[in-house]
């Protein structure tokens, strides 16, 4: 086996490893919605839950980072970010904060199923963005995966079965902005100061997300969140998943996969939402929604299936 072949095999292994990390990270994001609904049942508003998630998540990241710095092994393969790089990471983190704010505003004006479908437009936006940045047309397998993905999203979200739909143009605007913002989250997670350790990158990005969230929500919401002990458990749980675990996994996995592939894999978030809603909330899911879930999972697996076939030829 020559050097070129060895490098190719190593690159494929790294891409597979990165893809699995992205899959796990996106699945973590998928668990947020069902858990947030449990918090809503406890009487907390979406705004309070969102602020709690970002605030307590940033605190958790800080604690974990401090513990790692004092007790963990020194990671020589990573650099220590400069002040400029810290600002870049904090700026990158603002997109995650904007995504939270925009989708919150959208869901206040739109049915949840429509809001989800519009948010998941990040799938094709990521592929278009990669094509623009690399000046290369996406392959047929990615385009086919995208079409299956969009169809699956439409079914899995329940939008097809919605009996009466009132579309607020302002709500559509906020939802599409959330899709653009989430596309940028995926991009910056894979391209901003990737030489730094994933946990360190996540910490500075969480600070940027926290600043945006604090500025966009009313002061009374923030005061209530920090002074109400009952919301702490939800803030810690959602923060652990949505600000610590999922971003660290994405920050580790996305730098080794392409933007297009990263957005396709990230679509696993919706099947996780559906499955977790059944298991955690005991919600009813229709046959069409399950068909959509299967379609999304197939679309995610398709690039790997086709790549394996091409390698065997």
Write a brief caption for the model:
With 313 residues, the protein is mainly alpha-helical. The protein is built from 13 helices and no strands. The two termini are 18 Å apart.
Description:
With 313 residues, the protein is mainly α. It has a domain at 17-136 and 164-257. Helices cover 79% and strands 0% of the residues. The chain has 13 helices and no strands. It has helices spanning 3-41, 46-71, 83-107, 112-119, 122-134, 140-156, 169-191, 198-216, 219-227, 232-253, 259-266, 269-281, 287-312. Helix 1 (3-41) runs antiparallel to helix 10, helix 4 runs parallel beside helix 7 (169-191) and helix 5 packs antiparallel against helix 11 (259-266). It is globular and about 55 Å long. The mean pLDDT is 87.
Mean pLDDT, to the nearest integer, reads: 87
The structure class reads: mainly alpha
Rg: 20 Å
Give, in order, the helices and strands: HHHHHHHHHHHHH
- How would you characterize the largest beta sheet? none
Low-confidence stretches: none
Q: What form results from the Cα inertia axes?
A: globular
Proportion of residues in β-strands: under 5%
Number of strands: 0
Number of contiguous helices: 13
- Amino-to-carboxy terminus distance: 18 Å
Helix content: over 70%
């Amino acid at each position: 086996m020559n050097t070129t072949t060895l490098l190719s095999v190593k690159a494929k292994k790294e891409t597979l490893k990165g893809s699995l990390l992205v899959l796990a990270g996106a699945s973590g994001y998928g668990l947020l919605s069902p858990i947030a609904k449990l918090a809503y049942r406890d009487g907390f508003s979406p705004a309070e839950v969102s602020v709690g998630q970002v605030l307590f998540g940033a605190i958790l990241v800080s604690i974990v980072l401090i513990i790692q710095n004092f007790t963990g092994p020194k990671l020589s393969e990573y650099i220590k970010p400069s002040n400029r790089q810290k600002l870049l990471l904090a700026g990158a983190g603002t997109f995650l904060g904007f995504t939270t704010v925009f989708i919150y505003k959208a869901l206040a004006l739109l049915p949840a199923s429509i809001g989800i479908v519009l948010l998941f437009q990040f799938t094709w936006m990521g592929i278009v963005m990669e094509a623009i940045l690399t000046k290369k047309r996406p392959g047929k397998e990615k385009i086919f995966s995208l079409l299956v993905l969009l169809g699956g999203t439409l079914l899995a979200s329940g939008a097809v079965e919605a009996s009466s739909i009132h579309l607020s143009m302002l709500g559509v605007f906020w939802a599409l902005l959330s899709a653009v913002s989430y596309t940028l989250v995926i991009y910056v997670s894979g391209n901003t100061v990737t030489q730094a350790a994933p946990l360190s990158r996540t910490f500075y990005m969480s600070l940027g997300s926290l600043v945006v969230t604090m500025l966009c929500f009313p002061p009374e919401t923030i005061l209530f969140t920090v002074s109400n002990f009952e919301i702490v458990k939800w803030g810690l749980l959602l923060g652990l998943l949505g600000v610590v675990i999922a971003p660290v996994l994405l920050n580790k996995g996305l730098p080794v996969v392409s933007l297009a592939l990263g957005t396709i894999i990230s679509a696993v978030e919706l099947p996780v939402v559906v499955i977790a809603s059944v298991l955690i909330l005991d919600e009813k899911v229709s046959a069409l929604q399950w068909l959509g879930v299967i379609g999304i999972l197939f679309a995610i697996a398709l690039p790997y299936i086709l790549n394996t076939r091409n390698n065997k030829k």
